[in-house]
Amino acid sequence: MLRRKPTRLELKLDDIEEFESIRKDLESRKKQREDAEAAAAGEEAAAIALGAEHKSREQIINDRIGYKPQPKAGGRAAHFGTFEF
């Protein structure tokens, strides 16, 4: 394999200005997103606190992910069918 001298990279003033502008833009977007999430979380907490029904942590998670558990049929009737005496 042939060896060559390392390439020299020069940092110019334009590059620094471009980096700073992009960094500020990303920071402002991040701050806006965090503010929006904080506001949404505050509204959710207020809705949960003021709501008439108090849900358990499991129910809140199930609602959030869209899971609706079906009750399991219990007893002998579920295994053998319905018998009427």
Explain how this protein is built.
It is a single chain. The protein has 85 residues and is an all-alpha fold. The chain is 61% helix and 0% strand. The protein has three helices and no strands. It has helices at 13-50, 57-65, 76-80. It starts with 12 loop residues before the first helix and ends in a 5-residue tail after the last helix. The mean pLDDT is 79. Belongs to the CDC26 family.
User: How much helix is in the residues?
Assistant: 55-70%
List low-confidence stretches: none
If you average the pLDDT, what whole number results? 79
Helix/strand/pairing category: mainly alpha
The radius of gyration is: 30 Å
Topology as a string of helices (H) and strands (E):
HHH
Q: What coarse outline follows from CA principal-axis ratios?
A: elongated
Give the DSSP E fraction (strand runs of 2 or more residues): under 5%
| Sheet with most strands | none
Distance between the termini: 91 Å
Number of helices: 3
Question: How many strands in all?
Answer: 0
Pathway: Protein modification; protein ubiquitination
Protein name: Anaphase-promoting complex subunit CDC26
Organism: Mycteria americana
Subcellular location: Nucleus
Features:
85 residues; mainly alpha; 61% helix; mitosis; Anaphase-promoting complex subunit CDC26
Quick rundown:
With 85 residues, this protein is mostly helical. Helices cover 61% and strands 0% of the residues.
